């Protein structure tokens, strides 16, 4: 259908004497269309409106209550109108009434533009990104903080994002900026929000205490108004498609080190058309307006208590960390930072480990914590062995072999061997010992039989008949 300006163009050219063919060529319309417009003349034919049901004021006033009763189901609303009011309204007409009254969705409103003074606001949010870490494909949580005035920002990655990681990131970001803004706009996430939603939500007590330390008030945006923090929302697309492609990462520390270097040397140095300058240059103007950091900034850590197991390890997040053996069975206090883990016993640090970030079922042993395990206790040789070994070389060799073959260090056999040495003459005794050692004979009763065989002619001489 032609618009009114197009119709007026055809009529004007016709009044100037142009033929139908010329008008068709000039305006690009078919000759049939040109003839139809000329036949209609100046008056445009009125469009016939399709017959629609009449919406009376009484019906209009009752529609919101019936729509709520139907729980937003227009089919059920149609049935309620038929049952309670006797009105048979077509479904298409009823849906148009629902839209016109704004019952299903509020009418769209024009979006605005936020202007921030230096040091007035910063925005924080997280977004999941897929990346390759140590040769493994995984999903990491990208946390970002951006200043509203200068658009100067900082990003880091974490395997998960709990309240502990949130405080770790914000503490690191505040140190990176060298100051803070008075307000920080956040999402309606349960990580920071304790109850409710929107600007009137109740922030979790630990987060409130953390913000008071830096002079920051955390304010969630209203539901379905994520454009309230559009700067940080737009930032994630830039990070995902500029920082991650073509880069490899060995571990979480390497990933965050590269992300920090990219923020400092690349992203914040790039000219922004909306700013007319680079974020780094705008940040130099905003930095004097930031709140200074507190003089003392304690380390963000989780304090947990464990009992040292029988293997001299403490368990945390399915991983095992070694402690000195003297602490077996004792209660210790663990200070869990993001990159390091410290173990305290009675107020003194007894162990320090690099935390196994994003890993499970790892076993970390620090040098000096565990001595080598000796399954068999080393005991001094029996006193009888020392008495026997100094008598003769033949006896020494036999005693060493006897100690290895006899059970429980051969103490009982060594006692009997010493008794045989003291009972019988040396030469027959040593000759029997050498003979027994040559044949691997370590039975003391049989050894005594050999000794008696050597000495029977000397000690048991019987007279002739």
Automatic annotation (TrEMBL):
It comes from the Bacteria. Residues 114-287 form the Integrase catalytic domain. This is Transposase. PROSITE patterns: INTEGRASE. It holds the Pfam family HTH_38. InterPro entries: Homeodomain-like_sf, Integrase_cat-core, IS30-like_HTH, IstA-like_C, RNaseH-like_sf. PANTHER family: TRANSPOSASE RV3428C-RELATED (PTHR35004). It comes from Thiorhodovibrio winogradskyi.
